[in-house]
Amino acid sequence: MAEVIVITPVKNSLETTLDTARAISASSVRVNHIIFNDFSTEETKAGLEQSQTEIGYGLVHLEQHTDHPSPNYKLVLQMAQKKAKEERLPLLVIESDVVVKPETIKDLLEFQKNTIKSGLVGSVTVDENGMVNFPYLKFKGVKEPVIDTSRSLSFCCTLFSTAFLEAYDFMGLDEAKDWYDTFISKKSVELGFKNHVLMNAPVWHRPHASRPWKQLKYSNPLKYYFLKFWKGMDKI
Fold first, then answer.
1. What local confidence, expressed as pLDDT, does residue 232 receive?
2. Element containing residue 159 per DSSP (H, E)
3. CA triplet 8, 11, 15: central angle to 5 degrees?
4. Distance separating alpha carbons of residues 144 and 136, to the nearest angstrom
5. Which of 33, 48, 158, 163 has the smallest number of Cβ neighbours within 10 A?
6. How deeply is 36 buried, as exposed, middle or buried, from its count of CB atoms within 10 A (0-12, 13-18, 19+)?
């Protein structure tokens, strides 16, 4: 029986997505992994379907549930919360540019189980050389194995407790936003829960590999902020 619902929202980037899925399938605990395909290309859709049985994950094509254009992170979170509550399991988001270790999910689950009033628990992100990278550069240089923080967690690899899922209904998420990392992190603290980042359970993160246009933030910031503010993309 699965110990946790794991979800991975996907918009193209098939190669990194399958890397993510293979790593999750190699976890030391049993998981129910579901990939949410958010209007990817037909090529990506076919690749996800072709590898589904081999790797072992559930697959939801959002085009069968909404005609709202991508990104549909709100809908993904709402569908995932409903399933997690039905199965009385915690919910873990692992994004499609993240590769976990076999023990990562076990470490997250054990920490949350043994921590009073745990709301969100995230794994720190590192590059291929093991150095802390985006979006956790704010914790670079921290020596403690665990950080108790009121600052925003990224959903790169973040576990939601069953208690938090019962306390806050994702149906109330703001329609005007695209991403909810900051809002949900703050909501957890507001409701009396504690958020933590595990520095001793790092995951490999390839920033924005799943959304290549966002890499413009570093290579062409003027174009990035034009798209962000004038085109209304990447609303947080």
1. 52
2. strand 157-160
3. 80
4. 14
5. 163
6. buried
Task: Kindly report the number of other CB atoms within 10 A of residue 175's CB atom.
Answer: 6
Tokens standing for residue 74: 């709100």
- What structural domains and CATH numbers belong to the chain? 5-230 (3.90.550.10)
Question: Strand, helix or coil at 27?
Answer: coil
Q: Which residues pair with 120 in a beta bridge?
A: 160, 195
Burial grade of 127 (CB within 10 A; 0-12, 13-18, 19 or more): middle
190 burial (CB, 10 Å; 0-12 / 13-18 / 19+) is exposed
Chain-centre distance for alpha carbon 164: 16
Helix (H) or strand (E) holding 19: helix 14-25
Measured distance between the N- and C-terminal CA atoms of the chain, rounded to whole angstroms: 35
Instruction: Give per-residue pLDDT as tens, 69-97.
Output: 999 999 999 999 999 999 999 999 999 99
Paired tokens of 21: 């899925």
> In residues, how long is the chain?
236
pLDDT top residue among 49 and 178: 49
Kindly report, residue by residue over 92-119, the tens digit of the pLDDT. 999 999 999 999 999 999 999 999 999 9
